[in-house]
Amino acid sequence: MIQLCSCVPAVLLASSSIISLGWADVLIIVIYFAMVLGIGYYLSRFTKTGDDFFLAGRKMTMWIAGLAFISANLGSLELMGWAASAYQYGILAAHWYWIGAIPAMLFLGIVMMPFYYISRTHSVPGYLKLRFGESSRMLAAISFAFMTILMSGVNMFSMALVMKVIIGWDINFSIWVSSITVLVYVALGGLLSAMFNEVVQFVLIWAGALLIPIIGLMEVGGWKGVIARIHENFPHGDYTHLWSTLGHFRDNPMGINWVGIVFGLGFIISFGYWTTDFLVVQRVLSAKDLRSAKMSPIIGAAFKMLVPFIVILPGLIGLAVMPGLVGQDQAAASGAASYNEILPLMMARYLGPGLLGLGITALIAGFMSGMAGNITAFSTVWTYDIYKPIHLALTGKEVDDKHYVSMGRWATIVGIFVSIGTAYLVEHAASIMDYVQALFSFFIAPLYGTVILGMLWKRATPAGGFWGLLAGTLSSIGMWAWVRLDPRALSIIAGSPDAKAMAEDMYRALWSWLICVAVTVLVSLATRPKPEAELVGLVRGCTEIPSEGHLPLVKRPIFWAGVVFAAFLVLQIIFW
Amino acid sequence: MHEDHCISIWFFIGSLLTVYGFIIVIASLPAVFSAAAQPHVVLAQLHAGLWWGAALLLLGIFYVITYWPAKKDQQHSES
Predict the structure, then answer these.
(1) Which of B2, B19, B53 sits opposite A57 (nearest CB)?
(2) Is A215's CB within 8 Å of B42's CB?
(3) What residue ranges are annotated as transmembrane (chain A) (predicted)?
(4) pTM of the predicted model, to two decimals?
(5) pLDDT value of position B45
(6) Domain locations in chain A as residue ranges
(7) What is the CATH number of domain A74-575?
């Protein structure tokens, strides 16, 4: 799940770099850039058709699709942002990796993937076109394209600021070098190149980040030592329990209760992001067959469950060994170090020559995989869901596949340059960072309501789908504006005046989803449904899903989904 | 993943890990022989760079050998 780092303003105010690099570190970073560009150049010869460019030829194995699926999400400041959140909120931050991801990813693989895959859609808005018609597709496509390009720019700017603070790189240098690198390898090889590099980046993230918690645990004497040191440092707070402090908003550092976590995060935000955000779904659509498409999110879920080890645990170890880090406002006022920089601080604490370069490369790899994910998703949605229908409406004739590949490449180039423009825009308006998180919740939660009703309820009509999506989106924007104009509204939306920003996001998502579903149901009941013959391949009950009964147990996606879900439950009990 | 045509992704990953492992081992060696060369990090005496670099190097070599492109071409021509 995406966390937009609140670290940026603090980072802006930092005056000197945290880490200085040696020859080995610089060499490792240079080799990384050479490798990703080389992969893009090499793969350009395999990218000829629209399916090649936008869906990697639909020939990916389950492992590649699964790792790229998780890697595209692992960018976007995940490493920095959630390590900082773990320092701020404790182990509660792990909810965004477990209940905020695992059930939704398994649901995507087992329940929703067959409809995406069998319908042969190029994108999530493309599915809406098949199910609900052109107006729903256009609404979803435009909002997604807008959100994606803004996210890409914000990530780019944030990465540049982080690099400035950590190793002293000039902001312009970071923005241009990273974006031109992504531009070259995505424009050359399309999704195939992006996914290849995402798998490389995934391995590098682990290779670069895994040593921090290992050495950290050795320093403090294992997990029990971490708990003991945190209790010693913060005797009045509970930072090490996942569920037992969620009875009331006041009982935990995050200011949220279990209803917000279970229903807002677990059922709405998480399901919305993992099952309808095309940035991640696109990776799974590239799988070579239906079984691979179903297995990819399950493989992704298994790895996602492990990510807290390299993201949340360093934040918790930071609470144990570096108490006293402060929030961004305090850091800005006092000049003290901010917990938003906890990950680079931990790198500086534990990583020697060469390892430091690998750690920095892990951060750069994370940022670039997120950026490439946004750009490939944008170019596909732009080409197939915005440009193609408009071109068809204006000219009245279909054009060949090469035309769309060419448009996809131009969309990649233009998308990168618009993102760079957005990055500079953000530089002059830091509060946009907060608004982007809100933008994300405006569009994803209602979209999930529309898609899930479309897939599971035959009676949902085109008018119901469109008006439900529009009502959900507008109500989400309305609730956000209401709280900005009158802060007392928070106690109505989130159910308590003690709710904090994170709780507001969760409850707003929950309400907007409910409104979307209610409007879709009411309008559908009042309008005429599509004939069942038009719903074949799109809706449960009208679609024959190939049986897996003939496969041995260990080859069935449902078996592995059960294994991953059992492991998820065990983790909840261990850290209860 | 276009397995019929292009070099396996795991070969690229193996190559990168091999090179990285080698660089990290070389960069970590001075600290093994001289306490003065030890980096100013916690638990520097464990020489984490040396062990981690060696692990990456071995893993990388394993992947390079397993997914060496000529091997796949040979398997294709035999089949």
Answers:
(1) B2
(2) yes
(3) 26-43, 63-84, 96-118, 139-167, 173-192, 199-218, 256-280, 301-322, 407-426, 438-457, 463-485, 506-526, 558-575
(4) 0.86
(5) 87
(6) 74-575
(7) 1.20.1730.10
